[in-house]
Amino acid sequence: MSGPPALLLALEVLDTMISAGAAALPRETGGILGGFRDGNLVVVTRAVVVSDSGSSRNDYVRRDTVARARLADIRAQAAPVVGYVGEWHTHPADQPPSGTDLATLQQIALEADDLVALIVLPFDGANALTPHSLIGASARTRARRRSVLTWSAPVEISELDAAQLESCANTAHDTEGIPPGAKAGPDAR
Ligand SMILES: [Zn+2]
After folding, report:
1. For residue 98, how far is its CA from the centre of ligand 1 (angstroms)?
2. Is residue 37 a part of any domain in this protein?
3. How much distance in Å is there from the Cα of 44 to the middle of ligand 1?
4. pLDDT tens per residue, range 141-182
5. What is the CATH number of the domain that holds 63?
6. What distance in angstroms lies between residue 24's CA and the mean position of ligand 1's atoms?
7. Separation of CA 161 and ligand 1 centre (Å)
8. Does the predicted model carry a pTM greater than 0.90?
9. The total number of structural domains that make up the chain
């Protein structure tokens, strides 16, 4: 990997979170993020709402069974490149990610064994504020234990929508991928 990981959101992802978050106020809501990875970039094309009937002003539990069913729905509809890339939830007040949120990120990074994102969208009254976004990745240490690295990554919003981004990914992987052993640059003779 070179450079810190970054996060790119499809045009409509933040809107989905803002409308679900506003509808749930004064309680929290959240769900899972669908998308794909491209090198150090986590591309989020779908924010899926996984509602929690027991959520409160400062607590949201992302229900596993519902989340799995929603993810299966996405996989059935979306391009094959799309899979689970993380979690999101709202904070009804202007609060950054909590200690629990960071622990969750570490846990999902260990389980995913790849880059994962956590987006926390705070509100001030009815207004959505700038989202906080974190990326986690698990790595093996010299002692062969696994440790998790986390980064604070600014959210960049793409000008492309989900379908456009997902079709770019398909093209890149299926037809424009560099064949194994191919060389490029001044070394190639
Ligand atoms: Zn939180």
Report:
1. 5
2. yes
3. 19
4. 777 677 888 999 988 999 999 999 998 886 554 433 333 433
5. 3.40.140.10
6. 14
7. 27
8. no
9. 1
Which structural domain, as residue segments, surrounds residue 136?
A: 6-168
- Residue among 137, 143, 119 nearest 18 (CA): 119
Residue 75: inside a domain: yes
Predicted local confidence at residue 8, as pLDDT = 96
- What's the pLDDT score for residue 53? 87
- Cα(101) to ligand 1 centroid in Å equals 5
Burial of residue 38 (number of CB atoms within 10 Å: 0-12, 13-18, 19+): middle
Q: Which of 16-25, 66-75, 116-125 has the lowest mean pLDDT?
A: 66-75
Q: What are phi and psi of 16, to 5 degrees?
A: -60, -45
pLDDT at 41: 93
In a domain, 23, yes or no: yes
| H/E stretch holding 167 | helix 162-174
Q: Which DSSP helix (H) or strand (E) runs through 43? A: strand 41-49
167 Cα to the center of ligand 1, angstroms: 32
Residues with CB under 5 A from ligand 1 (ion): 98, 101
Q: DSSP 3-state helix, strand, coil percentages of the chain (rounded to 5)?
A: 30, 35, 40
Up-side HSE of residue 97: CA atoms within 13 Å toward CB? Answer: 24
**CA 18 to ligand 1 center in whole angstroms:** 15
71 within some domain: yes
